[in-house]
């Protein structure tokens, strides 16, 4: 009968997903970027944005920790109860990686374990309904 003309297709599905994972459209913010967004002056700007019709929910309902926009206040409150949000809060408890920590890991100083930062869900303003 002869050999099949298709060879080595078992790994092809992994190659397809590489392009999808690195697309900038689906890329979320990294934890260190979210830590910088959580600073009070930046957080105030993100939570009280001007109306932008190009963004979901006109940019009025934003989860600071997950860097996501929501359609309305109800969906934002439901998001606060989800496993995804709670997992993100747990990831954000660890202080972001710094250059000084990288140098210590490379042997240029003694190791200091990362500190834990207290992270709570953002307050929700009811008048935005």
From TrEMBL:
One of its GO terms (molecular function) is ribonucleoprotein complex binding. Its main location: cytoplasm. Residues 1-36, 95-129 are annotated as: Disordered. Pfam families: zf-C2H2_jaz. It is found in: Cytoplasm; Nucleus. Belongs to the ZNF593/BUD20 C2H2-type zinc-finger protein family. This is Zinc finger protein 593. It comes from Parambassis ranga. The gene is znf593.
């Amino acid at each position: 009968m002869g050999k099949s003309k298709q060879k080595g297709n078992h790994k092809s599905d992994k190659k397809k997903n590489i392009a999808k994972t690195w697309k900038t459209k689906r890329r979320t913010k990294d934890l260190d970027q979210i830590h910088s967004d959580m600073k009070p002056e930046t957080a105030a700007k993100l939570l009280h944005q001007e109306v932008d019709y190009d963004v979901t929910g006109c940019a009025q309902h934003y989860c600071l920790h997950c860097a996501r926009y929501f359609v309305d206040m109800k969906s934002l409150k439901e998001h606060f109860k989800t496993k995804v949000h709670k997992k993100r809060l747990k990831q954000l408890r660890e202080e972001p990686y710094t250059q000084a920590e990288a140098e210590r890991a490379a042997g240029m100083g003694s190791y200091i374990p990362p500190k834990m930062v207290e992270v709570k869900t953002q307050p929700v303003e009811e008048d935005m309904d």
